[in-house]
Design brief:
The structure is a single chain. The protein has two domains: 132 residues, Aspartate/ornithine carbamoyltransferase (Rossmann fold, 3-Layer(aba) Sandwich); 155 residues, Rossmann fold (3-Layer(aba) Sandwich), CATH 3.40.50.1370. The chain is of the alpha/beta class and 302 residues long. It is globular and about 55 Å long. The protein contains nine helices and nine strands. The strands form two sheets. A five-stranded parallel beta sheet has the order 7-6-5-8-9, covered by helices on one side. Strands 2-1-3-4 form a four-stranded parallel beta sheet, sandwiched between helices. Bound molecules: phosphoric acid mono(formamide)ester. The site of phosphoric acid mono(formamide)ester has 9 residues, from helix 2.
Length: 302
């Protein structure tokens, strides 16, 4: 893993996932280590972010590292027409590691091919969000005490949702049963369903919530992402397709936990927040420990 970029969750093996989870657990118990003291980490966000950027920054600060970068490409020379390649060839000279979020699918892979320092994909369009996936795995392991044989419901934008694509791929190593709930327009793409079939894994598909939530160990909710639609009318048709309410959780399993990568718009009603099965804000905190684990692993410090 040392000096290896993390672009897709498939860049890591099942053993790597388990190693990151173990390391994240160590960092959660002891977060104030100075492992990044002599490191400069570049954080290039070409798309908005709250959790990914700030949890990386929090992780870097707690580990004693320095952060450079931008939160808005409009303040960089990209605004003057500089290419992604030239931006990366410059930033690699200033840093030991590059974290990048970009709206174009494949941009992080391209940056990693150009860069001499490792690149971490912090989300590339509708493609991949591997660090979110690793913090999701950590959250699932913490709440269920295992990753094996779980009943997982994925809800919302399953077509463009990069977090659900990464999660589906990673969890397919642990014999899950999946249920997909989404409007027809935003169904899980065929290639992911074929992947599950090729591994002999079961899935069901619905267009709305039903009794299946009573069998779930994890309900992973995602928002309909306005920014992925080229036609605003299409977004208007599906934006309020499903809302998880507290009243729907009365017959669910004790161990059920509700996850959401956030931000939420209205797909989880605020009355769910006080239910002990709501886990999404703790999930966001887990991002700090998972990202500590990922960075120190890639830099060969652990
Ligand atoms: N989960 C996630 O990627 O959130 P942000 O867009 O706020 O970083």
């Amino acid at each position: 893993m040392k000096n290896k970029s993390l672009i897709s969750i498939n860049d890591y093996s099942k053993e790597d996932y388990l190693e990151i989870i173990e390391l994240a657990d160590e960092f959660e118990k002891n977060p104030n280590q100075r492992l990044l003291e002599d490191k400069v980490i570049a954080s290039l966000f070409f798309e908005p972010s709250t959790r990914t950027r700030l949890s990386f920054e929090s992780a870097i600060s707690r580990l004693g590292g320095k952060i450079i970068g931008f939160t808005d490409a409009g303040t960089s020379s990209v605004k003057k027409g500089e290419s992604l390649k030239d931006t990366i060839l410059t930033v690699e000279k200033y840093s030991d590691l590059i974290i990048m979020r970009h709206p174009v699918e494949g941009s992080s892979r391209y940056a990693s091919e150009v860069s001499k320092v490792p690149v971490i994909n912090a989300g590339d369009g509708a493609n991949q969000h591997p660090t979110q996936c690793l913090l999701d795995l950590y959250s699932i392991k913490k709440t269920q005490e295992t990753l094996e044989n779980l009943n997982i419901i994925l809800v919302g934008d399953l077509k463009y949702g990069r977090t659900v694509h990464s999660l589906l791929q990673a969890m397919s190593n642990f014999n899950p049963t999946f249920t997909f709930i989404s409007p027809k327009l935003l169904q899980m793409p065929k290639e992911y369903k074929l992947m599950l079939e090729s591994k002999g894994l079961k899935y069901e598909e619905y267009t709305e919530f039903n009794d299946c939530i009573n069998k779930a160990d994890i309900i992973y909710v995602t928002r309909v992402q306005r920014e992925r639609f080229s036609d605003p009318m299409e977004y208007e048709k599906v934006k309020n397709s499903y809302i998880l309410k507290n009243s729907m959780l009365s017959d669910t399993k004790e161990n059920l936990r509700i996850l959401h990568p956030l931000p939420r718009v209205n797909e989880i009603s605020e009355d769910v927040d006080s239910n002990e099965k709501a886990y999404y804000f703790t999930q966001a905190l887990n991002g700090v420990y998972a990202r500590m684990a990922i960075m120190t692993k890639i830099l060969g410090l652990k």
